[in-house]
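To make this tangible, we now present a fold written out as C-alpha cells:
***
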Amino acid sequence: MISNSIVGLIFLGQIFGGMYLMINNYLFYEKKTMLISTITIVSGIIHLLLISLFSYYWGLTGAALSFCLSKCIQFLLTWLNVYKMTAIPLAIKSE
C-alpha cells in the first residue's frame, strides 16, 4: 500500500511542476528557449542522481522525494533566470 507521505511528495512535486509551467512562458516570450532546454537537462540529470541515491537508502519514499526535489530545483532555476531577465509584476497596486 502506498503511504500518505509518498502521495504527498508526489503531489508537492506536481505543484512545483505547475509553477514551473506558469513561469516559463516569460522565457518563451523573451525567446530564451535554449535556457529552458538547459534548465530541463540539468534538472533531469539532478533527478537521475537523486533517484539512484535516495531510492537506494529509502526505497519508494526516496524516489518520491527525489521527484519533488528535482521539480523544485527546476522551478527555482527557471524563476531565478526569469527574475534576472524580466520585470515580473509582483503585486497590483490599487488606488
In short: The first helix runs from residue 4 to 29.
